[in-house]
Amino acid sequence: MTIPSAIRGRRRPGTAEHTVTPDGPAPSNDGGGPAPNPVDEVPSAWKLLVYGLQHLLVMYASTITVPVVVASALDLSQQDLVYLVTADLLLCGFGTLLQSLGIWRVGVRLPMVIGASYTGIAPMLIIGQGSGLQTMYGAVLVVGLATIAVAPLVGKMMRFFPPVVIGTTILLIGIQLIPAGAKMIVGTDPDASGFGSPAAIGLAAVTALAVLLGYRLLPRLLRSLAVLIGMIAGTVIAAATGFLDLSGIGDTQAISFPDLLHFGAPRFDVLAICSLAIIQIVLVVELAGQVNAVGEVVDQEISDRRLAAAVRADGVVTALGGGVFQSFMYVTFAQNVGILTITRMFSRYVTATTGVLLMSLAFFPVVGEIVAAIPRPVLGAAAVVMFGTIAVVGIRILGQVDFADTANVIIVAAALGVALLPTTVSGFYSQFPDAARQLLSSGVATGICVAVLLNILFHARRPLEVPVSDRLS
Fold it and tell me: Which Gene Ontology molecular-function terms are recorded (predicted)?
């Protein structure tokens, strides 16, 4: 899939157009050799460190939130949480290196970063709570390997995901994740004495306010750090009010390597795999949008072959997250596109430096211990803000949809209704057979299926729309 010239990004001021072909950089217009290509420039060590650290800070809040949400929902120990944080940092760093530098046909070779996916949280939790962690990671492993296998077909899949489908899906993901953040604030056991403590809710409210003020008051370059700054502010307030417990810091070795198969050998269940496979399709569509967005910013064409290389990188990291360093599903992040636009630093070696920094942090368990020490209401408030933002992204995509067409109204209404049934009514499918209950309990997965099938039913004879990946970019 190639970005049409009409929607490609502008050239970097002061440079010639720098299009990359399968055989290397295109020749310059003046015949004087290859045109300058900012993506392949190697800045000074100082710039690599400064800009690489900036990318790390932007993605850090998202990177540490996923492990905390999963560990909290699955009632894992603090040691398990420390492991999840370090394993996540390691795979985020490795994936970022892979996407930035590339190996053979793996990695898009653009300034992009990889992180744990919010989209995969809800179905992973359903599998983990119902069938155990080993089954959950078996599904992640298979889905990662399948992603590598189908990478060449991704360009042809885009036709099934117009804005009405992908917008509904992302809206559902945000809505279904918000309760996970809320439970981090008030607790998971309504019978516990501290459940819904006004102090905890107050701390969360102050943290959320700090995040919102950051978005409102910070300069544009720093707004992407608003969530991280809000979490720091909330933690400082927690320390001043006695909410911060630092007793767990320093309990492990100063330097160590994340365990292999920390939660045991993966087990494989067809329904669990199917549930995550549906979610992975959405992640692949999301990835296509991110790659096209970066291609537009740095003025490089994204062919089907290059998109397949990006998909393979995500698949490799996801497979490692299931079968080696057990952690999460992974996808190329969008947050860092804003940094590229603002700083105009397009070098892929900058994000490669970010990858090295992330991998370096993984060898220091104290990083995970510090994350584990952050009060749950602080992390919950940050999570609710981020999950709410995901829902808004879905709404923005739905803004491209023609709702004067009744078919689109039915698609969104049916998908939302079916997906929210198990969320709003606990035990809605409790009388169904175990296999059916496990699959139907994933509201996001069922909602995606309904949206895709209804879109095919209503729009099968219509002209092909602009792929959602191009619209996202």
Answer: xanthine transmembrane transporter activity
Buried b (16+ CB within 10 A) or exposed e, 130-168: bbbbbbbbbbbbbbbebbbebbeebbebbebbbbbbbbb
In a domain, 473, yes or no: no
Instruction: Report how many domains make up the chain.
Output: 1
Distance CA 412, CA 175 (A): 14
pLDDT digits (tens, 9 = 90+) for 283-299: 888 888 788 878 888 88
Residue with tokens 């699959």: 439
Is 84 among the domain residues? yes
Whole-prediction pTM: 0.79
Task: Give the domain extent around 377.
Answer: 45-460
Tens of pLDDT, residue by residue over 218-252, are 887 778 788 888 989 999 999 998 888 887 777 77
Q: In this structure, what token pair is assigned to residue 36?
A: 């300058």
DSSP-assigned letter for residue 255: S
- The one-letter code for the residue type at 466 is V
Q: Has residue 433 been placed in a domain? A: yes
Helix (H) or strand (E) holding 116: strand 114-116
* % of the chain residues with pLDDT over 90: 33
Q: Is the dihedral of CA 401, 405, 408, 414 positive or negative?
A: positive
